[in-house]
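Q: Two folds, back to back.
A: First:
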Amino acid sequence: MDLEYLIRRSEKYSKPSSIFLFHGYGSNKEDLFSLEQFFPKLYTVVSFDAPLNLPFGGNSWFNIDYSDIIENNLDKRYKEINESIEMIISNINLLIEKENLNKEDVTIIGFSQGGSICWKLGLDYSSKFRRIVPISSFIHPSYLNHDLESYTNKLIYCSHGSLDEVIPLKLVNDYILKLSKKNDLTFDKFDSGHTISQENLLRLLNWINDTAI
């Protein structure tokens, strides 16, 4: 399945670096694409629509209900998450070829459910992605291929609002701290809810500049 997407092409014409964006549950490709104006013009920026249409509007990367978060487990979503992941990788590979992108410098950024997709992509398919940026997202070993301790040397920026009521910080804090032991991981906490605050965006942009090739 070909995913719909929006693209801002780089001002660099030969094999530019790229940033792929993954929106949250019930949103669409226009949401995070509004951030493209802030990213350096040397990057090609792509924002995907998730494949599942929701009855009340918007899209989803996988089905979920609040019990998944309360129970702190994504085990029952494992199959459909992997189906979505395979679709995403196929679409990214096609765009890398079509747009002549630098496959050695691909960054993935996701918010909320899109951030959970980023964790899965970046940890289990790390050879394809140089930088992983999950924001205000849910992570749990149940939907990963390996134990958290086995993931090493990943370049990660993640952030969370201490006032987040959709995905409470306490549900993800321990897992992120475990990952920080063997990875180059920056974890910022902000006095905000389930959103990307102005301060969060500024810290993210600084991190992108600091870790650029």
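A: Second:
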Amino acid sequence: MNTDELIALLARDAGPAQGPAPQQVGGRLAIALALGGAVVLYLGLNPDLSEFARTSVFAVKMVWLIVLIFFSANLVFRMVHPGQRLGVAPWGIGLAMLAMTVQGVSQLLQTSSELRNALWMGSSWQVCALNIMVIALPVLAALLWTLRDMAPTRPVLTGAASGLLAGALAAILYSLHCAENSLTFYSIWYSSGMGLSALLGALMGLRFLRW
């Protein structure tokens, strides 16, 4: 048997690799989000959440996080389908982060100097980023578990995008606990938490998503 015949034999009836069933993916993510929600319940819900949720600051934060979820999920989807371009997803993520940074800096500059520390530090700067990363861990694990059964060709970038997606989902869950009402705070500490999750995802992707 020559090489061409061997290749033809191996390729006969070959189809695209089958990833996990949608029910499996949904089940894994549901369990992961439930675990993240349990962490939030352990931390405690914001007692003023119903009132705070009606403020413009909360709305801006939610829109920002939803945009990040949309573009990071789009990026992950593209990364696990070899041959697809990255599209506008990286630009969307970058512009969303830039927009929140600009708003945070603008708010800081419009505040008197004696109040600026409170604006960017709030009352929970020491734990905010870490809490978001902890809440993101089960979501990131579920995503990487799912992606192992697919075909990512760039494991580091795929892991980073998955980490960002997990971090943004975690940040929404954490918002049920967080009482901070400063865009400056969000631009620094929420971004740091999602950044830590993305970094962890990149490191784990290098280890677990290699073919």
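Q: And?
A: The chain has a mean pLDDT of 88.
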